[in-house]
UniProtKB/TrEMBL annotation:
The lineage of its organism: Eukaryota, Viridiplantae, Streptophyta, Embryophyta, Tracheophyta. Residues 51-130 form the Methyltransferase type domain. InterPro entries: Lys/N-term_MeTrsfase_sf, Methyltransf_11, SAM-dependent_MTases_sf. GO terms for biological process: methylation. It comes from Salix dunnii. PANTHER family: METHYLTRANSFERASE TYPE 11 DOMAIN-CONTAINING PROTEIN, SAM-DEPENDENT METHYLTRANSFERASE SUPERFAMILY PROTEIN. Pfam families: Methyltransf_11. This is Methyltransferase type 11 domain-containing protein. Belongs to the methyltransferase superfamily. SUPFAM superfamilies: S-adenosyl-L-methionine-dependent methyltransferases (SSF53335).
Length: 215
């Protein structure tokens, strides 16, 4: 695209990109590919309120609504894309779009959401300047807001280091977690030495760690 990956961590890059590209774009995977996992960890029948961070102009949230989710809030640092998405989905009350920096979500009250979904935002932040500090801010902000019940953080970080033998690796069912031991060898045992994959991290809160329960 004629730019370095470092630009992915800068707000100006996204404003420029969304000003010139109006069509929807999904990083890594589209909603239908991830629907089994989303349905598993965020059941529709409990009517969850979901936050999608770094939404961009992705059709992912639109896919969730079409799949039966009724309350999906989307945030992005780019005012350009937020205004465009507000206009595009003005007739869809299930979808809300707010301009916001994921490193400061103080506008939301504690317990506002049942789940948080990130599809590429953490990756973008890790590409920018002061990446470690900014990534830490993002993760602390997500956790400090004390989103209740379930937190799902999906960061699909591409690993395209193919082995000499090609990309023929065992197919792993999406809803079957891959166990990880201390040195990560179990992932290699299941997927091969250099798997051509995206990584999905599902994080849930341990209720036993709450201060009031410790007391």
């Amino acid at each position: 695209m004629g730019t370095s990956t470092q630009a992915y961590g800068e707000p100006w890059y996204w404003d420029n990109r969304y000003s010139s590209e109006s069509g929807p774009f999904d990083w890594y995977q589209k909603y239908p590919s991830l629907a089994p996992l989303i349905n598993l960890y965020i059941p529709r029948h409990v009517h969850p309120r979901i936050l999608v961070v770094g939404c961009g102009n992705s059709a992912f949230s639109e896919g969730m609504v079409s799949d039966g989710y009724e309350d999906v809030v989307n945030i992005d640092i780019s005012s350009v894309v937020i205004e465009a998405m507000k206009k595009k989905h003005s007739n869809h009350p299930q979808l809300k779009y707010i301009e916001m920096d994921v490193r400061d979500m103080s506008e939301f009250q504690s317990g506002s959401f049942d789940a948080v979904i990130d599809k590429g935002t953490l990756d973008s932040i890790l590409c920018g300047n002061d990446s470690r500090n900014n990534a830490t801010k993002m993760l602390k902000e997500v956790w400090s807001n004390e989103f209740e019940k379930l937190l799902v953080l999906l960061s699909l970080m591409a690993d395209k280091l193919l082995s000499d033998e090609g990309s023929e690796h065992p197919i792993q069912e999406l809803t079957n977690p891959v166990p990880i031991d201390d040195n990560g060898s179990s992932v290699e045992a299941v997927l091969g030495k250099n798997p051509d994959v995206h990584y999905i991290y599902v994080c849930t809160k341990d209720e036993s760690l709450k201060p009031e329960q410790k007391a």
